[in-house]
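ok, trying the design again with the full structure, not the truncated one.
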């Protein structure tokens, strides 16, 4: 009976901690969220390792520079712990045309989609990239952009920043204008990386 009570307390603590950390992350409070994700990862949680990998892959919070090596190790560990988003992202250690990449994406696509369909905004953000690139499914850029915009409207700066990257990649003036619009939105949502890019762009426009 005592073991059951302790286990229930742990589950309540875990759910509360993860929900709090994810809400912090969405709102751009990535530094405080990091400490919670780290604590959860130290308990062996795969989803927390997925988030820590994002920090190192993107250079978020106190991580000054992106480190793909550490990010990759965290994703592998998160995948072994059973997290499907971590497993999906282990594919990026390989070239998109490689059998290894294709096998991982094909293996995880339906599970990530199920998670996205259940309302998981981070899974939705991942699905957008899969559709936009035609990984594991037929390429559908419009569908991917629609998903990113939906996530952005729900407050996820990560999706706003991804939209800015996409429009910047078009190499047109119209694309540049749209990219800046999404950068400003990402910055308003708490994305420090977007703020830094905006400052540089403003400096270059003088």
């Amino acid at each position: 009976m005592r073991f059951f009570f302790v286990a229930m307390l742990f589950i309540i603590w875990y759910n509360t901690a993860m929900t709090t950390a994810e809400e912090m992350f969405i709102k751009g409070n990535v530094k405080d969220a990091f400490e919670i994700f780290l604590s959860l990862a130290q308990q062996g949680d795969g989803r927390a390792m997925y988030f820590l990998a994002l920090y190192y892959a993107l250079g978020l919070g106190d991580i000054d520079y992106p480190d793909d090596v550490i990010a990759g190790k965290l994703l592998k560990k998160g995948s072994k712990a059973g997290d499907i988003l971590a497993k999906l992202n282990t594919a990026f250690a390989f070239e998109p045309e490689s059998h290894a990449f294709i096998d991982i994406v094909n293996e995880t696509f339906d599970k990530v989609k199920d998670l996205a369909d259940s309302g998981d905004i981070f899974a939705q953000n991942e699905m957008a990239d899969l559709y936009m690139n035609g990984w594991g499914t037929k390429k559908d850029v419009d569908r991917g952009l629609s998903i990113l915009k939906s996530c952005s409207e729900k407050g996820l700066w990560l999706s706003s920043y991804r939209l800015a990257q996409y429009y910047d990649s078009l190499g047109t003036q119209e694309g540049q204008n749209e990219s800046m619009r999404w950068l400003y939105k990402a910055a308003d949502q708490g994305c420090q990386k977007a703020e830094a890019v905006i400052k540089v762009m403003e400096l270059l426009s003088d």
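Keeping the full-length input from now on. The chain is about 75% helix and 0% strand.
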